[in-house]
Design the sequence.
């Protein structure tokens, strides 16, 4: 049975690498935020607006426990998922966990290349974004480093580099 959970800060490439890994292995891929939105029939932003962060984190915790029971699956988690409740310890018990680690500069570049809107970064200047990311990453690093495996991800600005990162994850996990 294969169960892989990818963690890391926003912009690290969890969804991109997760989709590639799942495709290579012929397994289903679940992005935890998308799973929550499907099950709750609301966007993450709507849940945050209605229930606040505490309410969202409770839902996220419950949905993590649901999806992490699936067999033969690749899962990517939101950047904050490992940092609440016993989520990180639970993920380590359930799966091979991989921390996709990158510097603030690389994360910032990934976010600029990405198509998605990041509500936490709206209305911030580039300097404010870097300061925000630096502070949050310092707080979260203690949880991320509990993963069973760590992969330094470089700028994934083309398909070859993405494929190389997917291959490195497979190599780390002996898949």
Sequence:
């Amino acid at each position: 049975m294969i169960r892989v959970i990818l963690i890391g800060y926003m912009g690290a490439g969890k969804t991109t690498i997760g989709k590639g890994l799942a495709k290579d292995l012929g397994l289903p891929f679940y992005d935890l935020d998308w799973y929550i939105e499907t099950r709750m029939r609301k966007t993450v932003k709507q849940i945050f607006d209605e229930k606040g962060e505490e309410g969202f984190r409770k839902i996220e915790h419950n949905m993590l426990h649901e999806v992490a029971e699936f067999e033969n699956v690749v899962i990517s988690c939101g950047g904050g998922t490992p940092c609440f409740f016993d989520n990180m310890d639970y993920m380590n018990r359930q799966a091979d966990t991989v921390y996709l680690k990158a510097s603030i500069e690389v994360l910032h570049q990934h976010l600029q290349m990405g198509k998605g809107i990041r509500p936490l970064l709206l209305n911030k200047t580039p300097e404010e974004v870097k300061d925000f990311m630096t502070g949050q990453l310092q707080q979260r690093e203690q949880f991320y480093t509990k993963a069973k495996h760590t992969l330094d991800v470089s700028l994934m600005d083309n398909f070859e580099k993405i494929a190389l990162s997917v291959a490195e994850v497979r190599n780390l996990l002996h898949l």
